[in-house]
Design brief:
With 717 residues, the chain is α/β, with parallel strands linked by helices. Helices cover 42% and strands 14% of the residues.
């Protein structure tokens, strides 16, 4: 009898194990070919489901599918580990690179000790062992950090091939929606047409001439060999379009497969994805992050294609977050690792690269180095504030140091001096700390002013003290994503209308990078130099004034401990020197000061977990978290959110519903969550799903209010 791999319940059609393994084998080989390991991919596909030959599994699949619901299952029906045992028998020299991928293709990659325990098992008697001919060669790996990425990439090839072949049989209509998108050569022509139109309609100004120069440099440099590149362009220099121009031309020249743009903030992602969709068409741009919601798209088929593409990034242009990119590169679960093989032979743009977390720099830099050397990736770092990423990076002492990247090629020539030519702002540093009321008094002197502070609490305190005249707005993460988006759009709209007299905005750092707004005056609470320059980039952005002013002030309270204090101290250490704060030299000096205050560039000890033969994949995946998640996500009462909660309670969880609800959620810190729970404001409607129904806890101006308003009410008898 033929071994069953899958049973389609609609018509009880059977996919044999031979058919499935051969299908997976072909796909995995094609994926692994991109980094020269097609034979390894082929073998992983042929071996991964050998355990399905077990009688117990055959009984299990017939029972669970409903084909034979009354059949009894005799013994252990687990199957994934069997392929690893056979690989060990057939390929005693090469099997260590295959074992974990094979046994973890459903469950996830194991820690070394757990994997070795499973490898002590015996090949079941009812599983056949056929000889497999293969010409395997081990790749040359130059650094200890390469091996875990290679193993994870092979794993990615296998699990994506497994998912895709299974989907082709089980859900053929869904499978048909995949893979139909434009080639980069066609997208290059779209970009050329767009840029020609942009140039033809743009007035002949100094800024536009500089933008054209930057684009020309990107064209010229795009033909050079794959590797590490940087594009350092001050705010207003057209960095986003120029970086994509370089990436598209570079990819076409060197036959690279796709362009992946990683951005630190979702607000910038949405803006960037919108710009790129306008150029290349929405059908060629995948926006992938936790807040994206495609359920309201009018084109249902395109919505489904984008949803499917987010699973494995099989798209020409992908716009995602730093968190999604790097946490996937250290993940161990099939769903997270599935996309990784599609990073090979791609162009990776890291936007606002100065925001990479310093305490994870070693594994991040090592990963980028592996991607370039082993997997043929070209990397472009883009920012107005380029950090130091090459050479020896020193921490607090000689034991806290590592070697950065080599040969990062800057696209813009030094003699261009863009920071001089695009200078539109004067920085003024206040020499004494001030109270909230003093800052408010200064803000009130300006009819159009932006104030950026470091914490949600400070934003609320200053906003509530401001005179409510004209248009006065608040922006922080105490507001849900839909509220944030709506507020940013309102700010952009009112600023473009000269008749709107007073426009004042108090915000946290979420406004200072990549958000296209333009105030004549900006106030920025003291912070690192990179943050101050980002804030200054929201001042006189369009160059309509001869010179805008950005004031840097301190509050009469200490900064939060940790990274925020480190960055500010690094800047303060430079204050006695005669710096041109906008120059690359000042930025270089600032980052060297910052690094010298860092106790670890590998906070999660990734080197100890993965840079060795006994790799701890599962532990490392749990440890590598770019954002410390010490918060609870709470659904607030904003617009129609409570209607969606009612649907959740009647119809249950669904992907589309949770995406909609994410637009009405606020991340609440542990202390604030405790206060809200004690006040009886929070309801856990489903396990792990928290809701605040009371409208009094969500202010239409400042967002979530964590104070217990009932305790402030007078008692009436």
């Amino acid at each position: 009898m033929e071994v069953i791999s899958h049973i389609r319940p609609d018509d009880w059609a059977i996919q044999t194990n031979k058919e499935h393994q051969e299908g997976v084998s072909k796909l995995a080989a094609r994926f692994a070919q991109e980094f020269g390991m097609a034979e390894w991919g082929r073998l992983l596909g042929l071996l991964h489901d050998k355990g399905k030959e077990k009688q117990a599994f055959q009984q299990h699949i017939k029972k669970e599918s409903g084909l034979e619901p009354n059949i009894s299952v005799d013994g252990d029906y687990r199957h994934a580990f069997v392929g690893a045992l056979i690989a060990k028998k057939l390929f005693p020299k090469h099997h260590p690179l295959m074992d974990n991928a094979l046994m973890g293709h459903h469950r996830g990659l194991y820690d070394d000790g757990d994997m070795k325990e499973i490898m002590k098992l015996q090949i079941p008697d009812d599983v056949s062992i056929e000889k497999l001919d293969a010409q395997l060669s081990l790749p040359t790996l130059q650094k200890p950090g390469d091996i875990h990425h290679l193993e994870r990439m092979l794993y990615s090839c296998l699990v994506d091939a497994d998912y895709l072949d299974t989907e082709t049989f089980m859900q053929p209509e869904q499978s048909e929606l995949r893979g139909k998108h434009g080639l980069l050569e066609a997208l290059e022509r779209k970009l050329d047409v767009f840029l020609d139109g942009l140039k033809g309609n743009a007035p002949d100004t100094d800024v536009n001439r500089i933008r054209n120069e930057v684009q020309q440099w990107c064209r010229e440099e795009s033909v050079k060999a794959p590797g590490f590149y940087s594009l350092t362009v001050p705010t207003g220099g057209g960095k986003t379009i120029a970086s994509v121009l370089w990436a598209v031309k570079h990819a076409v020249k060197h036959n690279l497969k796709r362009i992946i743009i990683a951005i630190p903030y979702t607000s910038i992602i949405t803006q960037t994805a919108s710009v790129l969709s306008n150029i290349f068409g929405a059908e060629n741009v995948l926006e992938h992050h936790s807040n994206v919601d495609r359920t309201d798209m009018k084109d249902h088929e395109l919505s489904q294609k984008l949803k499917l593409a987010s699973e494995n990034w099989d798209y020409p242009i992908v716009v995602t977050t730093n968190v999604q990119l790097f946490e996937s590169l250290f993940a161990n679960k099939p769903s997270d690792c599935r996309k990784l093989h599609n990073i090979a032979k791609s162009v990776l743009i890291l936007d606002e690269v100065q925001t990479l977390p310093v305490e994870f720099l070693q594994p991040i830099i090592d990963t980028l180095d592996s991607l370039k050397r082993v997997f043929g990736v070209s990397v472009l770092f883009t920012t107005a504030s380029q950090p130091v990423l090459s050479g020896t990076i020193m921490g607090t002492n000689r034991f806290v140091a590592f070697e950065g990247l080599s040969d990062i090629h800057e696209i813009v020539p030094k003699e261009a001096r863009l920071h001089d030519r695009l200078r539109r702002v004067e920085l003024k540093f206040e020499d004494h700390p001030q109270g909230y009321d003093e800052i408010v008094e200064q803000l009130a002197e300006h009819s159009r002013v932006l104030c950026i502070v470091n914490t949600r609490k400070d934003a609320k305190e200053i906003y509530t003290r401001l005179p409510k005249e004209g248009i006065c707005l608040h922006l922080s993460r105490m507001m849900c994503p839909d509220h944030v988006r709506e507020t940013i759009e309102r700010v952009k709209t009112v600023l473009k209308t000269p008749s709107n007299g007073i426009v004042r905005l108090v915000a946290t750092q979420l406004i200072e990078a990549g958000v296209d707004i333009d105030f004549p005056v900006v106030f920025r609470q003291e912070a690192g130099l990179d943050s101050i320059l980002q804030a200054a980039g929201r001042c006189n952005r369009e160059g309509k004034l001869e010179k805008g002013v950005a004031y840097v002030f301190g509050l009469q309270k200490p900064l939060p401990p940790g990274y925020m204090t480190q960055t500010n101290n690094a800047r303060l250490a430079m204050m006695g020197e005669n710096h041109d704060w906008f120059s690359p030299e000042a930025m270089n000096a600032y980052f060297m000061q910052l690094y010298s205050r860092v106790n670890s560039f590998d906070k999660a000890n990734i080197k100890g977990l993965l840079y060795k033969p006994e790799m701890q994949f599962e532990t490392a995946a749990s440890a590598f978290r770019l954002i410390d998640d010490n918060t609870f996500s709470v659904i607030v009462n904003w617009k129609n959110s409570m209607e969606l909660v009612d649907i959740l309670l009647t119809e249950g969880l669904s992907y589309s519903l949770m995406k909609k609800l994410s637009q009405f959620s606020v991340n609440v810190r542990n202390g604030d969550m405790k206060k809200l729970m004690e006040a009886g404001a929070v309801e856990e409607v489903l396990e792990g799903v928290f809701v605040i129904r009371d409208q009094a806890y969500y202010d239409k101006e400042v967002g979530l209010v964590t104070d217990n308003h009932w305790l402030e009410e007078s008692l009436i008898v």
